[in-house]
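Lab notebook, bench 4. Continuing the backlog of folding jobs that were queued last week. Each job is logged with the same field layout so the records can be merged later without manual cleanup. Today's entry covers UDP-N-acetylmuramoylalanine--D-glutamate ligase, a 452-residue chain. Filled in by technician R.K.

JOB TYPE: sequence-to-structure
TARGET: UDP-N-acetylmuramoylalanine--D-glutamate ligase
LENGTH: 452
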Amino acid sequence: MSWLQTNNKKRIVILGGGMSGVGAAMLATQRGHDVFLSDGGVLKDAFAKALLDQHIPHETCGHDMEQILNADVVVKSPGIPDTATIVQKILEADIPVISEIEFASRFTDEVEIAITGSNGKTTVTSLIGHILQIADFNVSVGGNIGQSYAAQVAEAPAEYRVLEVSSFQLDGIKTFKPKIAVLLNITPDHLDRYDYKFENYVASKMRIAMNQDEQDYLIYNADDPAIIEALKIYQPKSKLVPFSMQRQLEYGAYIKDQNININLDTNSFTMPIQNLSIKGQHNTANAMAAATTAKLLQIRKETIRQSLASFQGVEHRLEQVLKINKVQYINDSKATNVNATYYALDSMEKPTVWIVGGVDKGNDYSELYALVNKNVKAIVCLGTDNSKIVEAFGSCVDNMVETSSMEDAVRVAYKLAGPGDNVLLSPACASFDLFENYEDRGRQFKNAVRAL
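JOB STATUS: finished
OUTPUT FIELD FOLLOWS
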């Protein structure tokens, strides 16, 4: 049992007043701890109201170091890097700094299923949640999507916790130990947070299995060279369960004769790929990961098949918005890195006007060249600085237009697209230059399309 679960009152300081910070503050308050939340900026109205309603002491637009350094433990928002001056001062004072995922996990002994990866984690998290709900499990779904883990633990018990976890959240874990961890892929992303070293980012992702033991499971993508190399280096203790799109496996999940096949000891499962509700090679891999999780939880085969056939997909991930003048508009705002955009462009079967750009995180666009040459007829740049995109793709297409607002980008795309074409928003970049987050970017895209 964690010391946080005991009746020992502790001073908990929370850095950051967003979704995860406010959730952690509510949980800590509910469990009788002395709580103080500090945010260097202005809180959103809903979060400010929640803190006031719960009478939680907090400050905004600055940090009172005397209050902060009086903490027994600091819970840090995933958006604040470890290199931030305030975090360095806390660490120098020998005060533990943990993530909200770690904090919440110390208040529960429920079954945790954690999903990470550079791409696909929201889809797989949502899909596993969907399967468990259809199987009538008592389950909550959240973490890096939807409601924060801490808020969910504060709200109600659940037998199963399905959690999307990002590398930033994993950086702050100490004892977090999921019963089932799912590692989908590791491709360069967020390198600006990892000293531009891919191996640092890989190490962060592998932390999902660091506390697992022989009673736990690590489901992993056996086609991903970075994962295969990392398994040799880090040697997790958990039972390894691979899935592969490329080869047959004696143990794990694989494709044969256009069927998903899963063999776990004496337990087998098959389902035709054509029956999956979500299409594309990457989604077949996502479905394999989710179905393997369900098999480990001993959910009935028919329930798994029914769930995989009825899942509606995720907002902002290859979301079909509208067809106007025989042009299909597609919202893939969640593609915040090159690899995610690779999947999007690869799934385009018609000439595509591609809206791309935002905050570059050290992107290497070269892996997209072949797909752009094959599938993209025009590029619309959307960002405050488009120079890297112009340089990368200027010679790939005849038409490239720079824009600095979503309305402009959609209007330009409308003019460039002809009957039978696609207009695809798949930015390959973070959104913070022009938008609050990728959700805001996706909704602005949908609103602009509807206003045409």
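OBSERVATION: The domain at 102-310 is CATH 3.40.1190.10 (UDP-N-acetylmuramoyl-L-alanine:D-glutamate ligase).
SIGNED: R.K.
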